[in-house]
Amino acid sequence: MTDLNPFIGFLETPPLWKGTQFDITQFNFPTIDLKKFSPIALPRKIRLGHQMEHVCYQLLSQSVNYKILVHNLPVKDENRTIGEIDFIVQDERSKKLIHVELTYKFYLVDPTFSELTHQLIGPNRKDTFFRKMEKIRDKQFSLLHTIAGIKALKAYHIDHKAIVHQACFKTQLFISYESEMMNIAPFNSDCIVGFYINPLQLNTAQFRKFQYYLPSKSSWGLTPHDNVLWASHQEILPEINLKLKEHIAPMVWIKESRLKFEKCFVVWW
User: For 32, which of 13, 236, 243, 263 is 20 to 30 Å away at the CA?
Assistant: First the structure.
């Protein structure tokens, strides 16, 4: 039986903003009834971002709102690939053609940066929202209007001038454990789903009394639940420390009580 967790997690992850911000319009992802959905097994051993491309494709294929015309189309300058078009879909009602760039991210809000748009960073500090936003707006959107992009679309009988550009930018945000709930406008506050802590905080008496679970990456998008094999602080600590030594910030589910669960990252930096 195909694992539904990546599909549930994708749908449960909110858009990072609503409407238009940063000169980028957010794609209105359709509602999908997973009870009527029969997923195809995802490729194994691919990174989370690529996994979510397959998830998004299957979910959009299920929708009556959109028809997928293009998916993962490489754009080549002679023999050199200079980019890729994630999706071009047609709105079945308006017949509008929409170029959709997909991004699925987990960001930590680091208040040491002065500008909010620079505060959103990956758990291992390897990627940032600001760089990704600039790449989408300034490179990936314009790619379709280059000579190579126009040629790639021509093979599908698509006029580049008839396309509107949007982003499906789904994100889960984590704030510092010591921070109070903050105003993150123009970002969507629904994206705040947990917090992050450092090893010193994890080793305090407060955290030693809880139970823990390390979800696989395919389950990162899920809301924590009780139907997993929980471990004590003492049991989970060696596994967390091993990841921290490798400069990997693990996601951890925390069971504080029978009815209260938390979702957090333990950071090495």
Answer: 263
